[in-house]
Amino acid sequence: MTSPLRALADWFSPPLAPEVTAALREVAQTNSAGFDPWGLHPETAERALRSARWLYERYFRVRTHGIERVPPAGRVMLVPNHSGQLPFDGLLVALAMVLEAKPPRFVRGMVERWFPSLPFISTLFTRCGQVVGDPENCRDLLLRDQTILVFPEGVRGTGKTYFHRYELQSFGTGFIRLALETRTPVVPIAVVGCEETYPSLYNIDWLARLLGVPYVPVTPFFPLLGPLGAVPLPVQVELCFGPARRWDLDPDAPDAEVQVLVDEVKAEITRMTREVIARRPDLQLPGLLPGVPA
Amino acid sequence: MKVLVTGAAGQLAVLLARRLAARGDQLTGIDARPLPRGQTFPGDFLQARYTQRRVDEAFRRVRPDVLVHLGRVRTAEVSSFSQRYTQNVLGTRRLLDLARRYEVRRVVVLSTFHVYGAHQHNHLHLTEDDPLRASQLFPELADAVELDHAATNFLWRYRRVETVVLRPVNIVGPTLNNFITRLLRARRCPYFVGYDPMLQFVHEDDVARALELAADAGKFGVFNVAGEGVVSWSHAIRLAGGDPLPVPHVLAYPLVGALARLRLGVPKHLMDYFRYPVIVTDARFREEFGYAPARTTVETLAAVGRSAPPPGQT
User: Which residues of A touch B297 (CB under 8 A)?
Assistant: First the structure.
């Protein structure tokens, strides 16, 4: 690579600060071959995070609020709302935890079960520390003090149409039970903006069934513009971190009691989302032009 | 202590036997295969199938204290499924039956992590309690799964015999000549484009040590045995000194299937183990037996590399 290109790349996606890299390496439980027990390869993960940095800083222009509320050490469970067809929200939360959290740390996203069947992506995701969202994996990660990222809405959240934006879908109770069992603090996160990256108007259910994918959205640009229509709109994204919650409840309490805690997390996410929406213009489609600050 | 070792013509049995002989144990080895030229077994050696009567006689004559069953035959050695089934399943049942009849005190059976099956829904760090999916996914592995079942059934049924079933991850080492070691010794080693799953490797000496611990223990149970950590297949190839050769799996599967039909000893059912991770945890074995691998993953793989001396096999 020629040096002007390298300079441009560095300007566009500056490398991670040495102290960030050092802090990440320090907590990574890597073996002699450089992998951690779940397949995270810090060198690969850092390269991937670095190249995604322009998405965070320049494309989605992410602003975070209250990231200092994430407990600085020990196991943590991050619980955001899920939106926007493709899981950019997960990527942005993971980047925030590397670029802005003190100390920085790798986030272990809990990915869909069909992910390991995808070539390339499954390999890259594993190297970057993502793990299949199985309760056994979750428990295992928490017991070894990892920071995990859970989207209790799953595809119900990402697959919803624009007309249901910022409506939280149903949360399961499994994540709270795991948090109770492993005594893990839960940090609710409101992600505002990702909802508007792909304003889906309709889901083609029959095609999704045919392709064996969770949903196939129709947006004003997709599938009309083909692959170009799959580019997310450059919406400014805000991430609000709520206060960490710790409860003293028997993990085997009946569903009704656990549901109270689930609702507490949902209420906090809704409250933070409303707060952000109230102070930023309602992002309607025509107003979304690249580079225009929201 | 009198120890009867099956699979005695194999390198792992020799490694274990040398350890036991060095501390004064009396060894008897049995294998259906003859001893490879130039190889000696440190003790009496009997060439016989485990279902043959001569094996009964060996039990009566020797009256072993311990039976270490390493004699599972692999696809690469016996490609006919029915023959493999007879040797592995019926042979194992026969040996266990003899162990009970002739009051063997301890039985150690070497199974394999393959019994868990390579499935995309596997969680990581499989424990001994996880389901053995291999027979559902790969009928060719049914004999290995049934061998494991026979051993665990025996373990719970005849509690007077202290039985330990070990399920090691990929065993590699400079003297071994198994499928994975042969792959790693190749100059250019294939991997499936787009798939680069985590694998676990354990050094032959660490497995020999694990077997020795199990033979001495006076405990019972089923235990995974692993090495230091996980490593991706492409990294493993490089650590062993080879070059990863990208192969599209859509081409490789039919090709290997065809080779397998020609009975060239290619285990086509193992291909999924190079697409999906099958990661086990050996926490239980480490805790109960005080086991810890002496070699790191890097050392283990470097030891099999091309630079290593060729195996003393025929």
Answer: 31-33
Ordered structural domains, chain A, with CATH: 3-197+232-279 (3.40.1130)
Residue A108 contacts B, CB cutoff 8 Å: no
- Residue-wise pLDDT for B186-213, tens only, equals 889 999 999 999 999 999 999 999 999 9
**What ipTM goes with this model?**
0.88
Residue with tokens 């994540």: A175
Q: Which residues in chain A are closer than 8 Å to B196, comparing Cβ atoms?
A: 123
Dihedral sign, Cα of residue B137, residue B143, residue B145, residue B146: positive
The CATH number fitting domain B2-173+201-228+280-293, selected from 3.40.1190.10, 3.30.470.20, 3.40.50.720, 3.30.70.580: 3.40.50.720
Q: Which amino acid would we find at residue B293?
A: P
DSSP assigned state of A162: G
Token pair recorded at residue A210 = 């045919």
Q: How far apart are CA B308 and CA B303, in angstroms?
A: 6
Domain positions in chain B: 2-173+201-228+280-293
pLDDT > 50? residue A211: yes
Helix or strand or coil: residue B215? Answer: helix
Is A178 within 8 Å of chain B by CB? no
A181 touches chain B (CB under 8 A): no
Distance (Å, whole) CA A258 – CA A172:
10
CB contact under 8 A, B124 and A132: yes
Would residue A92 be called left, alpha or beta, if left means φ above 0 and alpha means ψ between -120 and 50 degrees? alpha
